[in-house]
Amino acid sequence: MTKILKMGMIGGGPGSMIGDIHRITATASGKAKLVCGAFSSTKEKSIEKGKELGLDENRIYESYSEMIKKEALLDEDKRIDFVTIVTPNFLHFEPAKLALEAGFHVICDKPLAFDYNEALQFEKVVEKAKGHFAMTYTYKGYPLLEKAKEIIDSGHLGDLRKVKVDYSQGWLSQLIEAEGHKQASWRTNPEKSGKGGTIADIGTHAFNLLESVSGLKVKSLMADVSILVPGRKIDDDTNVLLEMDNGAKGYLSSSQICTGEDQDLSVKIYGSKASLIWNHNQPNLITIKYPDFKEESIKGLDKELIEENEVNLPGHSSYFTEAFQRIYEGFFDTIQNTNNKTDFVKANIKDGVRDMLFIEKAIQSSNEKKWIKL
Ligand SMILES: NC(=O)c1ccc[n+]([C@@H]2O[C@H](COP(=O)([O-])OP(=O)(O)OC[C@H]3O[C@@H](n4cnc5c(N)ncnc54)[C@H](O)[C@@H]3O)[C@@H](O)[C@H]2O)c1
Known about the structure:
By secondary structure, the protein is α/β, with parallel strands linked by helices. It is built from 11 helices and 14 strands.
């Protein structure tokens, strides 16, 4: 019987956006159990969260460095097996490095790092580490996107000629950081978000989704990375023309100033024989379109999540929760070498580094107003 993995969490304190989803979906299958955490930069808030979760008070830590140090001193049957990192972007590398160097496995949310330079240092740490490293690119967890990849790999669409990915949100259409909005404040602060704002926050999802599903790589790009809300300090809108490595053309758009949009995410891949469309508004459906305008719908299995696993995140269906759970199961599969899950759900350091390269090159292209190779 495979052992239950012991989880420690960094970030995900009171009022955090994505922390609860990580905790709930990591433990939903019973394959992992949360045993400790450093949930906030503030000692009191970390304790508040740890108590709410019913943790042993000795294992609610004041800081992530204390957590890694003290956990590493515990006996193997007690100490954590892996660490989940759900802090703002500027605080991914340091805790991950400490955890990996202490021999723990790490799963970290996107974007990988503050900038490309830090991502390269991160990669070196992962290469040397004994533990495994994974990332939560949520859209890799959607079963229908994995199915889309299979369809494309089978050659059903013919030669891929055009690709489009669009991720539009509207929650930053007003200057809500000026009113102290928690999640907006660090995302629009270049010292905490990193080199990119919206391009890092959701452009990375769009980029990873496009390359993962199409199987193509972006070869070169021409980007326009802008600040459209007056008073904002970092980009909130991105439009990128793409040339893929097979010669296909296309574009990536990511924006958080699309007033009234919640989670408007879609990917469209156009081939010589057929096209494939997926939209986050109907995540359990793929539409295939043919030259004679006939359409075929491919529907996934209805989800089988029990109610208490649901997290009410605006704009996200319960398929979002399911996707997160599948990513964690992929991570556990890697740790326990059980080979039950496909590689599609297992985003790793290479996905993270490539995403940071995309941010770097898109900003450079926008500043220099020219096409840049990736
Ligand atoms: N995969 C996805 O779909 C998805 C969705 C949302 C956010 N994210 C990513 O998750 C990360 C967190 O985003 P969020 O929206 O939940 O942010 P958030 O501001 O809601 O939460 C961040 C948490 O980190 C804690 N924190 C800050 N400094 C800390 C420290 N030194 N030690 C311990 N905890 C600390 C904060 O107290 C807070 O609880 C970001 O990197 C973001 O890009 C991913």
